[in-house]
Amino acid sequence: MRFAYVIAGSEATGGAGLQVDLKTFQQLGVYGIGTITCIVSFDPKNNWAHRFVPISPDVIADQFEAANAAQDLDTVKVGMLGTPETIDAVAAALISKDWRHVVLDPVLICKGQEPGAALNTDNALRQKILPLATVVTPNNFEAQALSGLDRLETVDDLIEAGRRILEYGPAAAVVKGGIDFPGPDAVDVLVERSPGGREPKVEVLSVPKIGQERVSGAGCTFASAITAELAKGASVLEAVRTAKAFVTRGIEQRVSAHTPFDTVWQGA
Ligand code: PXL
Asked: Does residue 17 have its Cβ closer than 6 Å to ligand 1?
């Protein structure tokens, strides 16, 4: 049995967060184990506004202890953390043991939240979690925030953002162009550190965009699919290719909901 572990937030509609991560793990044939950092319950009475509750740091530590005592985990995905306090708890847990891979989906804000709402949380994530990651999967907005670049509108911009993000420590960055990236294609760029300080390796992954609407849970599905594949022993490049195909199928067969966005079908 291969195990994949995720440390992330719960999202109550089932369209994002830990629920999506565990569905993705199951679908890709790995045994999923999850630790909850915070609970997001969108409010249907108030235009699906964010309601957010962090889990207390000692309960995060307890969950981590239980999960890692039950199984020998070496591949972990980190999703939404939520506050500087939850970030401290997760950083302390992560550095308490060695990992083969730490995949970080650097969730800065969720769809519908104001950018910059939580600058101290963004900074804590950059300073305390990003250096522990081996693979990081920022979307266009997160890549701007992490790289300091203003606009990511060309493939070269995505590559440059990836190179800058590698300077924080990860071995690989997958910068996602997303729905707002100009042109007809959904473009992601994998920038991977080379041994001996040589130029990073770059791989451009591109498929035609499916519609023009955002889909909830695509980023979570993508990063957890990468994690599942790494847990099975794939290389980073193989894992990213498989994950892109997986999320593309899931978006093609998206599930509609009463929420503002459709959601990815991991069973596709
Ligand atoms: O899609 C980003 C995301 C991740 N994790 C949780 C979320 C969201 C967005 O809503 O709620 C828990």
From this structure: yes
